[in-house]
Amino acid sequence: MKCNVGGADRTIRIVLGIVLLAIGLFYPLSTLWQTLALIVGAIGVVTGLVRFCPANALLGINTCQQQKQSH
After folding, report:
1. DSSP labels for 8-29?
2. CA–centroid distance for 5 within its chain
3. Would you give the DSSP letter of residue 64?
4. What is the 3-state secondary structure (H, E, C) of 26-55?
5. Domain residues of the chain, as ranges?
6. What is the C-alpha separation between 34 and 8, in angstroms, rounded?
7. Contacting residues for 11 by C-beta, under 8 A, at least 6 apart
8. Farthest-apart Cα atoms in the chain, separation
């Protein structure tokens, strides 16, 4: 897997993921909304930590700064 999540995108995914997980766990919601918050939060945290997002790959989006190699 090639890095396609970096910088601010990574930070935003992790922070919002943690917020959604906390909402899903501690805020009284219906079962549907609680499940959605937990799933989306987990996806955000995981994609931020592993620095790869399948949706970004499909759409050709890359926010990861690539290191330039000397030739």
Report:
1. HHHHHHHHHHHHHHHHHHHS--
2. 8
3. S
4. HCCCCHHHHHHHHHHHHHHHHHHHHCCCHH
5. 7-59
6. 26
7. 48
8. 57
Q: How confident is the model at residue 67 (pLDDT cuts 50, 70, 90)?
A: low
pLDDT digits (tens, 9 = 90+) for 4-62: 999 999 999 999 999 999 999 999 999 999 999 999 999 999 999 999 999 999 999 99
Q: Report residue 55 as tokens.
A: 């949706």
CA of residue 43 relative to chain centroid, distance: 6
Residue 67 identity (one-letter amino acid): Q
Q: Give the integer Cα–Cα distance in Å for 57 and 25.
A: 30
- pLDDT for 2: 87
Distance, first Cα to last Cα, the chain:
24
